[in-house]
Each structure stands twice: as structure tokens, then as C-alpha cells.
Amino acid sequence: MKSDLEMLNEAEENLEWFTRNSKNIQEEFGGKAIAIKDKKIVSSADSGIKLLEVLKKQNIDRSDVIIERIPPRGEIRIF
Question: With contact defined as beta carbons under 8 Å apart, do 22 and 14 qualify?
Fold first, then answer.
């Protein structure tokens, strides 16, 4: 089992990768939910719920991935 520090470091690396590649990711996966692990997209689906079902079928533990919803092209996100 990974330590909390290992899990935090992996999450930070994956989020940095996501940020650096967000334009390409948005072009390919706009309108979908994606799961990121080891600096790559390991799964995608039309919704978060469907993505969780896909991850379960792939035997990927939800706690091992970062899940992001990618807005469709032209959608504006306000935080």
C-alpha cells in the first residue's frame, strides 16, 4: 500500500501533466469525464457515473486515479 506522501506526489504529478496537456485533452475529450493515472488518460466516458462503472470493469481503483470533467469546446468555466 502506498503512503499518503506517495499518493500526494503522484496526484501532483498527474495534475501538472493535466495542466500542461489541457488543450490537447480538451480537443480530444471535450464533453467527457476522464480518469488520469501515471500521467496518461486510462479511461473516459460520457459522464462521471459511467466513468466509475468503466473503471470498475477495468479493475481500476477509484482512489488510484484523478477524475476530471472536460468541458465541451466553447463552454466557459467560471471558478
Answer: no
DSSP state of 21: T
Angle at 2 between CA 53 and CA 66, to 5 degrees: 40
- Cell digits of residue 26: 480538451
> Grid coordinates in use for 58?
477495468
CA 61, CA 8: separation in Å to the nearest integer? 16
Predicted local distance difference test score (pLDDT) of residue 78: 74
Residue 48: pLDDT over 90: yes
Q: How buried is residue 23: exposed, middle or buried, by Cβ count under 10 Å (0-12/13-18/19+)?
A: exposed
Nine-digit cell string for 56: 470498475
Helix (H) or strand (E) holding 37: strand 33-37
Domain spans in the chain, listed from the N-terminal domain onward: 4-69
Query: 34 with 68: CB under 8 angstroms?
Result: yes
